[in-house]
Amino acid sequence: MVSPSHQTVQLSRLSGAAVWKADELQILWPASTGTNNLVTDIHSGLTEFNAIVLPLDAAFETRLDAARRFWRTLTGRPPSPAFGALPQQTKMRHILNLRARDGRRMEVTYREIAEVLLSREPIAPRDWRDHHLRHKVRAILRRADRLISCGYRDLLFYPHSRSRKSDR
Description:
Elements: E1 9-10, E2 18-21, E3 25-31, E4 34-40, E5 48-49, H1 60-74, H2 88-105, H3 110-117, H4 125-128, H5 132-156
Antiparallel strand pairs: 1-5, 2-3, 3-4
Helix pairs in contact: 2-5, 3-5
């Protein structure tokens, strides 16, 4: 039983919503944060609803966040950052990895990669053998190789990984 304090959402309140019935009722509702896609297993006569049921599966946190953002939009609250958004530092690291990889594919030397991507000043050839950036460039290129070999696909599923870290 639903208490009277629960808010009921009427489909007519979802301005611009596209509603259609197939095996289940589907609603596409454009919002300021993107398009919300609601799917319900109620087959007929639905004009309002007052609950969202989420399966307890691997994507539960993502579904829960989507429901929270939907509720915030319905109540006129500002949107919040989406769950699982790739952190800015991680984005920058991946960009650096891929830029270094591109340089290496163009047969640029490690020293030139370090000068362009990591250093503010040129590195003398005599200093390169013991330079701290030499080891950093090698580490960056190893990460880039792992990313290219198939790790970039995990970015599509972030924060859910296709494979468990313990299996690697």
